[in-house]
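Suppose a classmate hands you a notebook page containing two proteins, each written out with its sequence and a corresponding row of structure tokens. How would you begin to make sense of it? This section walks through that situation. The first entry is reproduced here exactly as it would appear on such a page.
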Amino acid sequence: MAEGMLSPYRVLDLTDEKGLLCAKILGDLGADVIKVERPGGDAARSIGPFYHDEPDPEKSLLWFALNTSKRGITLDITTADGQEIFKRLVKTADFVIESFAPGYMDKLGLGHSALQKIKPGIITVSITGFGQTGPYRDYKIADIVAFALSGEMSGWGEPDRPPVRISNHSQSYLNAGADGAIGALMALYQRNINGEGEHIDISIQDAVSLLDGENRNPAWTRATQIRPRGSSGMMGAAHKTRRIWPCKDGYISWSHGGLSPLGPSLPLVKWMDREGFTNDYLKTFDWNRPDFVRVPQEEFDQIEEATARFFMSHTKAELLEGAVKNDAMLYPVSTTKDMMENRQLIARGFWVEIEHPELGLSITYPGAFGSFSEVPLNMTRRAPLIGEHNHEIYEKELAIPKETLLILKQAGVI
């Protein structure tokens, strides 16, 4: 394997689905990541969807996606023997990433202070629902809880209905995992300066609270206003602005914005007029009027009625091509198939094929988050099978005899 930016470093990944992305990012950057699972496999392997819709701990697509660039071992760190083996691994590691409840690792004698004594300078990343401190530290977390308590959920949905979560997958965990990777890299930089290892405390609630939403927490610091759910893109507007529109073969994203630099409408209206889709109201409407946000709803409906007819007469590809020609800020809403066939992503080599020998084929994965000029940034291997690298790590690296490993396996330690 070609060496990556983090090739000199080793990561021990103890996380469940709340933190799997953190170590994946470090692994894609070249670190040697060892995924430590309980004997029998991590519970995250039971999360669907599954390859060919066959529920199987070795076929979870979530597991496939979040565990590339990792080797895998099984180990029960709640046992005395398991703890001793883990401590031996810690001596070879630079990072330990975990997502247990606050205080759990300390109870096992494997908290950050204990790990520092084993390997001075080791960096620990703890990813939990609400962090290691505060009145909520011992509360359980789920994705829907994170979005609700962070304030992020308040802006999603229709104004006359309850708020909704943004996805049926755990987006909040991905945000926390990415924050954990950033924290780990900053701590590594600091360690290279002063030799000290940090304990990074990542709260999933914090991670979601810091998302830059138009009507949520960061926006409050800009305008001290909270936009109601489902409202116009403009604060204080008298009309509701539509943002997603149907077209011949799907949907496009567009918002009438008057003078707004985020969505000037005049280029689109001129394009509509050339194709005969404007009405009398649109032909006389002054798009430079400074009180655009105060246009009454009944008048704004006339703008949107003509716009809707125009979009329904074109495909997504036609609208994108026309938008480029006419300087209109309009974008197709891509499906999974659209993304796979997107010529820009293909040209950049974004999609990569990873071999799955156990399935007898390769699977297409989203690639790296960027392209580095001097070192490769890529996925080095598919997600590990349960205990796939036990022999490689226990026998070859730690020199544990086969006979001992057999006893440990029978005892449920590995």
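The notebook's second entry, a different protein, reads as follows.
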Amino acid sequence: MSKILELYSVAAQTQAAVDWQMLIQQQQCAYLQRKCLKVRKSAPEVSIGTCTVRYGSREPKPIMICPYRLLERHQVFMDCIHLLTLHEPGNELHIVQEVPIPGGSVDYFLVSTQARKVRDFVGLELQTLDTTGTVWPERQRFLQAQGVVSDVKNVDRSFGMNWKMTAKTTLMQLHHETQTFEFLSKHLVLVIQDHFLDYMRRAFQFEHLTPARLGDPLHLHAYALTQTDSGDFRLALGSRFSTDTAGIARCLGLQADPRMELQHLTAFLESKIGDHTLLSLR
């Protein structure tokens, strides 16, 4: 049984007719509405396209390995609207990518605007599991079974999940960023898969997390990936937790100054806002 569950946004076991040859030629990601950004190091013009894999020996689970997979239907943004406490009916909602803050950058900002002026915002970090080894041979074996490719090299090579390093890196990043959002009295949301959250709760001290409270600066939204009768996969919000800077302070000390002037951040957001950033339920 193939470990590839989704390739270029299409479920491997979908009941719909799929032209896999055309799919790998076009290399399109439905969530980004552009060419897949995950490319081979040895051949940058060729994208890998693997969104989700089956992983585990006893009870194999669908594991998302591409953060853009979390953009399905823009649900993760819709699930953060309640954190825009200054948002009012009639305001426009925008999605701005890669926003710089002290200590790094945030994947996405959901921004509420009035006359294209920022009224409120929420930061979102999207994190999926990093792999060890390469998924490429497994991808090629799947395509070989579909009659698309004939020659599969390195058939014995496999991949694993880098649970510990992904979790540690994520927590370090959150520690840096949460202090900035807490200082600004704004919210930061970590969007992850439920299986990843389960690991983090086992491996780290997560007892202090509470059911989501609006007053906390850091929120964790964990999504399940469920399979429909048609064989396709769909995101569903499973659980929400929250904490503050003190809640994750046990990870590592902050090395960058979190005090960012609010007007500098809003000026950056307003410079990026336009018709192309409008939140759309496509």
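A careful reader of the second entry would note: Residues 64 and 157 are 20 Å apart (CA to CA).
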